[in-house]
Amino acid sequence: MDFSSFLTSLGTSFIIFIVLMLLFAWLSTRPGSTVVYFPNRIVKGLEPWEGGSKTRNPFAWIKEALSSTEQDVIDMSGVDTAVYFVFLSTVLGILFLSGIVLLPVLLPIAATDDGVKKNAHSTTSNGTFNDLDKLSMANIQENSPRLWAFLLATYWVSVVTYFLLWKAYKHVSALRATALKSDEVKPEQFAVLVRDLPDVTPGQTRKQQVDSYLKSIYPETFYRSMVVTNNKEVDKIWGELEGFKKKLVRAEAIHEESEKKGQGTRPTHKTGFLGLCGEKVDSIEYYNEKIKDLAQKFEAEQKLTLREKQQGSALVFFTSRVTAASAAQSLHAQMVDNWTVTEAPEPRQLIWSNLTIKFYERMIRQYAVYVVVFLTVVFYMIPITFVSAFTTLENLRKLLPFLKPVVDIVALKTVLEAYLPQLALIIFLALLPKLLLFLSKTEGIPSGSHVIRAASGKYFYFVVFNVFLGVTIGGTLFTAIKTIEKKPNSILEILAKSLPGNATFFLTFVALKFFVGYGLELSRIVPLIIYHVKRKYLCKTEAELKEAWFPGDISYATRVPADMLIVTIVLCYSVIAPVIIPFGVLYFALGWLVLRNQALKVYVPAYESYGRMWPHMHTRILSALLLYQATMLGYFGVSKFVYTPILIPLPISSLVFVFICRKKFYGAFCHTALEVASQELKETPHMEQIFKSFIPPSLFSEKLEDEQFEDALSQVSRSESFV
Questions:
Q1: Residue 541 near residue 552, CB atoms below 8 Å
Q2: Is 706's pLDDT higher than 50?
Q3: Where is the CSC1/OSCA1-like cytosolic domain (predicted)?
């Protein structure tokens, strides 16, 4: 890529962002689009905007985002979202403080040397990108005294990272404690999940086993237990029943609309495959009959499930938050594979099918998934490397000669060089997250937020290994294959010296991500088009309309690893090619601004884990820092700088920092501290409501207190309960 292609990529990305921002400024004031741009406020019963759409400044969102407080974010989107902004702010601070020292110091030092001319082979640019190579370590001669400045800069970036991460960990710990201490009753704070129940003794039911065991340990505060059941069949029937109810409401809405037009035509459909074949029936009558038949079947299956499909785990409820927190941290049985007690997730987070997986099966599943993920990470690198090498314009011309007339067109060549490799890589990566979410769920994890955290970690290591290392190694090996054939021992030196040249790819990659990526995020063009198409042609009921505009949550499973990739790239190149730092600052500053708006007005959180993602974010940032420190050690070594060993304490200090942080802070994120749980509530918790909030929708019934439901949903005597 030459300098003109780089400027073309940067300029085009910036223009696209400006166009998308202007589109957002205009579209967000249109009354018909409020559900797309302000769904979070609408769901909470607030006005989409303050003042009328005609008088609203189209750029008021910038002022609103900048003036919003952390408490505003918590009120609108929860603690998890506030913690995500702590992450963005921390990384932004690391890059900004690094940049104010590195840019004015290192750029002049690099620019005034002439290493590129004397070592033409030291960059993969082959003389085509000298303008930026002169601003990197590629322009510093081997064993030059100027390398001292870069060595000290490596220490500066590390120290800044330690300081800001420590400060952020303390802040997030305080946020989590404050949220858990709040007077709002959180059902999960009064419950624990008990797994790996031993076999029931003859003459005893599973409910009696759980009640007698836990009540003997916690006689004063035990309230009720809910034995987990195999809900596969009842869930299936419930899903079919709810589906027919929706179809009935839709059919009635179509009929009502027809009557308003004076036609009065009753909707009909065919009962065969996809409504394309089979008997033609009256839709309203057909759905009513189906609902009636399924309702009876559903009630019978509910009774059967609660009586005969009980499994070896249960949810146990206490009248005290302190008891629940203490129980979740205690060893209840002599053998660790019996009576395993953990904190209960939020009711909406429970993955019921995973609650019954036994102790050793969970371990086997976990290690099996780790092996699969390792193989995926390693062997996915083959197509990633192929894509990164193949999609460079020069390689396309060599491998596909028939494209020469096309790619030699000057205007087209500039655009292709600017975007082709980056777009190919981004599209390729979009295929992976669903696989990692499936694998994480397969481990037997009991809660949705934990699955997202697990998938996020897997995705981070994948993108670092395959994108960062894959692009660096793949692009270099493909270009320098002949040199390596002649001198096989030179491979490490070639890889190290290619780093400044590869920075140009990542400069464009980061620019594309923050200009085009955040432009699309802000403008919400795709969700807007989908909503209006559905509203015009598909939606007939209010429920269907809400489903069409409902935005979902902020998608941490993919968003956090994508941000972490940028952190890794910018950190690793911050000293080698300092010009990348402003791009990193722009990415996180623009991301903070755009996502602040989205958090306050768009995304509706799907769960609340009170900042449990933070330890994972913290660890990933430090992983990126360790990779950066290892990269600098290698690069200084190849530069034949005799004082390179001075950098050896850095990775050691990072590992010590990880250890100290884990020991000091991590425990309060695994469990609720008793001093937090002991905070008195202003209102007495309604235990029956807490209990009912955990009942899965497919088992909920108004007849819950009947004897037929007693087997799985146990209760103590009302005289002994605490309400």
A1: no
A2: no
A3: 189-354
How does residue 138 score in pLDDT terms, banded at 50, 70 and 90? confident
In DSSP terms, 224 is beta-bridged to 317
- The amino acid present at 112, given as its one-letter code, is T
Q: What are the b/e assignments for 513-531, b being 16+ CB within 10 Å?
A: bbbbbbbbbbbbeebbeeb
Tokens coding 596? 């602040």
- Reply yes or no on whether the pLDDT at 428 is more than 70: no
> Under a CB-based contact definition with an 8 Å cutoff, are residues 345 and 188 in contact?
yes
Strand order in the sheet with 340-343: 222-229, 310-318, 191-195, 340-343
Q: Which one is predicted more confidently, 172 or 420?
A: 172
Structure tokens at 67: 């003036």
Decide: residue 492, CB within 10 A, 0-12 exposed, 13-18 middle, 19+ buried: exposed
pLDDT of residue 516: 86
Give CA–CA dist 362/514, Å, rounded. 40
Predicted confidence band at 71 (pLDDT cuts at 50, 70, 90)? very high
> Using CA atoms, how far apart are residues 445 and 597, in angstroms rounded to an integer?
32
Q: Which residue has the tokens 């660890």?
A: 619
Supply angle C-alpha 220, 223, 229, rounded to 5.
140
- Number of neighbours of residue 128 by Cβ within 10 angstroms: 16
Provide φ and ψ at 598, rounded to 5°: -65, -35
Residues with Cβ within 8 Å of residue 33, at least 6 apart in sequence: 27, 528
- The single-letter code of the amino acid at 444 is G
Summarize pLDDT for 295-331 with one digit per residue, the tens: 999 999 999 998 888 999 999 999 999 999 999 999 9
| φ and ψ at residue 340, rounded to 5 degrees | -80, 120
Q: Which helix (H) or strand (E) holds 228?
A: strand 222-229
Q: What is the DSSP letter of 341?
A: E
Q: What is the pLDDT of residues 533-592, one digit of tens each?
A: 998 888 888 888 999 999 989 889 889 998 999 999 999 989 988 988 999 999 999 999
Give Dmax over CA atoms of the chain in angstroms: 91
427-436 mean pLDDT: 77
